Structure formats: structure tokens, C-alpha cells
Amino acid sequence: MTTATLPVGTGATVLAHYRYLLLEQLRIPIAVLSSATFPALSLLFFVVPFDTGADPAASATAVAQLCVFGVLTGFLFTFGIGVADDREKPWDPYLRTLPAPATARIAGRLLVGLTFGVVSIIPVLAVGALFTSASAPVGTILLGVVAVLVAGIPFLFAGLAIGYSLPTKAAVPVTQLIFLPIAFGGGLLLPPDLFPGWLQVVSSLLPSRGARDLVVWTVSGATPSTLAVVMFVVWTVVLGGLAVWAYRRDEGRRYR
């Protein structure tokens, strides 16, 4: 008589992957600290010295932009480089042979990304509250945090697509090359109102501009660009499909 081994519950499996991946990230403190402090330092050095207290709405917009910047940084680098690095280690192929759904590890990785996304937001909010004239009700701030995480979805998909498509040596430069143009062009470092006309058009076509406009709208009520929001949705769908394709392609190459 044989005893069948029941698969571990999906929730427990996701939680196990989440704990493992979280501890793996925490073992490299500099990676966690850099993603958590860089957006806040940008706010401290490039916004606080010019904040006169005369326009709280402008300060709130700057804080919102840099929150999106922090999530973009975390998602692109955590998934783009992290997934590519994992694929080159013996542990990852072994995990794929276990009787657990692949979605459990992906879900665990997504939860880790969301965790560090929140971590990257907290220092920005702290600097904004202490050193700028930005202010908002607690409910608006919480809604803004949710909006930032939703706004990060296309960058999360982009990171997964890079990580499952490229080796680490290629994923690092590709992620770095994509990161700065998207961040600057999307108005995350400078308000898009300061851009010349042609750059405003280009900016509206980038997913980062739609992400920025959605978060600013949530926090301050400023009307988002219709084109930017439509392109944000388009990019989310396209990059989501690309991430699924990249994962299936990697799975087929290794295990067919």
C-alpha cells in the first residue's frame, strides 16, 4: 500500500517562497538600503532646498513623483537583475522540479517586490513630511501608497520580462539603460510641465508618465493626461504578456 503525497497548500507554498526570497534579499543590506534611500535622498537634495512653503501642492507632487521613482527602481532592478541571477543558480532549476505550482514562486516574488516597494516609499514620505510643505490627510496618503503600488505594475512586468529573457550579464546593462530614460522622460525627476513640447508628447507615451499622473491625481486631484493614462494601460497589458511569454519560453527551453 502506498501513501500519496498531498501537495502543499498554495497559500503555504507562496508564504514559504516569500519568506525565503525576503531573507535572500535582506542578506544583501546594501541593495535594500540603496533602493530605500536613493529616492528620499533625491527629494532631500533636489526638492527640499527649493521648497519655500508657498506651494504645498507642488511639494506634494514632487513627493508623489519620487515615490513612483522608488517603486520603479525597486521593481526593475529586483525583478530584472534578481530573476536573471536566480536562473543561473542550481537552486532555481531544482525548485522547478518540485511538485508545487510555478505560480507559487512567482507570487512569492511579487510579494517581496511589493514589500520593498512599500519600504522605498516610507523614507520619501518621511522626508516630505519633515522638510517640505507637502501635506495630506492620512486617508489620502494611504490611498496614494496603494496608487503607487498599482502604478508600479508595468515596471514589475518589465523586470520579469528582462529577468526571464536575458542572462545576468545582459540583464544588468539593459535594466540600467531602460531605467534612466523612463524615469526622466516620465517626469519622475522633473515636472513634465518644464519639458519642451516635443518631449511632453514623448513623455505621454511612456508608462512612467501614466504612473506618475495617476499617483499625482490620487494625492492632489490634478487632472491626468488622457493619453498618458491610456498608454499606461496599454503598456501594462503588453508588458504583462511579454513577461508571460518570457517565462514560458524559459520553461520550454529548460525542461522540454
The total of beta strands comes to 0
Question: Can you give the helix content as a percent range?
Answer: over 70%
Shape: globular
Strand residue content:
under 5%
Report mean pLDDT, rounded to a whole number. Answer: 85
Kindly name the structural category. Answer: mainly alpha
Low-confidence stretches: 1-8
Biggest sheet statistics: none
Count of runs of 4 or more consecutive helical residues: 11
Which oligomeric form is depicted?
single chain
Query: What's the N-to-C terminus distance?
Result: 32 Å
Rg over C-alpha atoms, rounded to the nearest angstrom: 20 Å
In total, the number of domains comes to: 1
What series of H and E elements makes up the topology? Answer: HHHHHHHHHHH
Structure description:
Residues 1-8 have low confidence and may be disordered. The chain has one domain. 79% of the residues lie in helices and 0% in strands. The chain is built from eleven helices and no strands. α3 (56-87) packs parallel to α6 (138-151) and α7 runs antiparallel to α8. It has helices at residues 10-26, 29-46, 56-87, 91-97, 102-131, 138-151, 153-165, 168-185, 197-204, 207-220, 226-255. The relative contact order is 0.14. The protein is mainly α.
